[in-house]
Design goal:
rod-shaped, 2 domains, 2 strands, mainly alpha, disordered C terminus
């Protein structure tokens, strides 16, 4: 297997959001063109729509006469009168196109805002010890840290990876190595030493200590591994008068 490129969940989410935004931008532009076409078709009054009097209910012209008095053929489309409100079917088509555009624009705003927030979150953690070291750690022992899925892809064993990153962070005191690539060659040795030391520490500890401590039994401070315990001085000896 070649060098594994780690992508954090937030990075994958950013990729998905960018794809959604690009798709929505195309849909918004298409919806705008569609709405403009409908508006030009149904809302632009032709030369015939003259007059400024009362609008007729038959011909829809403002010639200050009623539908009973009208001698003009009935208006069948807003392409004749320019008043889409008088033609329910065409009005419905226009409103539907307008609502569709508004819905897409709202989705685009929400996705864009979500992208900005997640981008800020990604920027705030990208230089953390965990994020900088993770990819190098995984590649230092891919058999240990990667799991092959049924579709042939590899995904990190997050629990093991995070546990070992915590060990490295403790070893390096939270400071990112200047040359991470070079330091990565020592990661497994550091982790192995850390595990060995922890194993010895646990082996020297009273196995019943935790249970006894729950029953108010107190143990003296534990000396550091490999270091003899410091001599305990009874404070009462300090109060003995020398004759």
């Amino acid at each position: 297997m070649d060098c594994y490129t780690y992508r954090s969940p937030i990075e994958l989410s950013l990729d998905e959001l960018n794809g959604d935004i690009r798709e929505l931008e195309v849909q918004v532009e298409s919806a705008k063109v569609h709405l403009t076409g409908i508006q030009e078709k149904y809302c632009n009054a032709p030369p015939r729509a003259f007059g400024n009097g009362k609008q007729c209910g038959n011909c829809h012209l403002r010639l200050d006469h009623t539908s009973r008095q009208c001698r003009i053929e009935k208006c069948l489309t807003s392409q004749q009168c320019g008043d889409v409100s008088k033609h329910p079917e065409e009005k419905s088509i226009l409103e539907s196109a307008s609502e569709h555009l508004k819905k897409l624009e709202k989705q685009l705003r929400e996705k864009t805002l979500d992208l900005e927030m997640k981008q800020k979150a990604a920027n705030s953690v990208k230089n953390s010890f965990t994020q900088r070291v993770r990819g190098y750690l995984i590649n230092s022992n891919k058999d240990k840290y990667l799991l092959r899925t049924s579709d042939g892809k590899f995904v990190p064993r997050s629990g093991i990876v995070n546990t070992d990153i915590a060990k490295l962070e403790k070893y390096f005191n939270g400071k990112i190595p200047t040359d991470i690539a070079q330091a990565a060659s020592t990661f497994q040795t550091i982790i192995s030493t850390f595990d060995t030391t922890a194993g010895l520490r646990n082996r020297h500890q009273n196995p019943a200590r935790h249970l006894l401590e729950q029953h108010a039994v107190r143990f003296p401070p534990t000396a550091a591994l490999g270091r003899p315990p410091e001599r305990q001085i009874d404070n009462r000896s300090k109060n003995i008068d020398v004759v």
